[in-house]
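[Discussion] Sanity-checking designs against the backbone

I'm trying to build intuition for which residues belong where. Below is a structure token string of 197 positions. I'd appreciate it if someone posts a full sequence so I can compare it with mine line by line.
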């Protein structure tokens, strides 16, 4: 049976499509960069999660099958509790523990996170991307594609240092505050380091 999983950042967060005609229409009308072919087993596992866990207590979405940290929140008993896909789970756990993040509704240095999801510093997203690329498994590459290419996460970073010219007309304190502000930007896309064998 043909199956397609549609993922979204809005409820319902995923939808399992089994009608071949609708699958064909969706694929033809979709941006090919946002479509990912997966093994039957991976699609079946994701479909089970979509059908069962989508109304979980997490802040929206689901924990990726075989992991405990890859999704909004986590379902681990403690820091060392990892899922079957432990390499990928380690990457997700470290990303969840990003020391520079903005929770939903949190404001800092001139920006507010109005998203339903936590926003991480761009350095944390870059480390997460590299960790998944280094694992280079079907699961790691799928998680990377979902997070960076399908959901298209936004990160934040400090503005580049201001030059003296940009500080003209401001007191030292005003210039320091202006130049220290942070801003949102799209995270870089996920590209596997090398194709799987």
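Best answer:
Here's mine. Compare freely.
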């Amino acid at each position: 049976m043909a199956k397609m999983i549609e993922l979204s950042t809005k409820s319902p967060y995923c939808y399992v499509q089994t009608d071949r005609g609708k699958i064909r229409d969706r694929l033809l009308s979709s941006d090919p960069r946002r479509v990912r072919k997966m093994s039957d087993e991976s699609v079946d596992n994701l479909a089970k999660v979509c059908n069962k866990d989508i109304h979980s207590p997490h802040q929206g979405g689901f924990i990726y099958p075989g992991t405990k940290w890859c999704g909004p929140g986590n379902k681990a008993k403690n820091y060392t509790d990892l899922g079957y896909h432990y390499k990928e789970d380690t990457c997700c756990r470290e990303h969840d523990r990003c020391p520079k993040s903005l929770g939903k509704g949190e404001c800092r240095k001139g920006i507010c996170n109005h998203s339903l999801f936590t926003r991480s510093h761009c350095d944390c997203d870059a480390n997460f991307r590299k960790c998944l690329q280094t694992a280079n498994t079907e699961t790691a590459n799928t998680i990377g594609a979902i997070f960076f290419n399908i959901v298209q996460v936004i990160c934040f970073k400090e503005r580049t240092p201001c030059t003296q010219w940009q500080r003209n007309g401001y007191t030292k304190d005003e210039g320091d505050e202006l130049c220290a502000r942070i801003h949102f930007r799209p995270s870089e896309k996920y590209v596997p380091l090398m194709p799987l064998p």
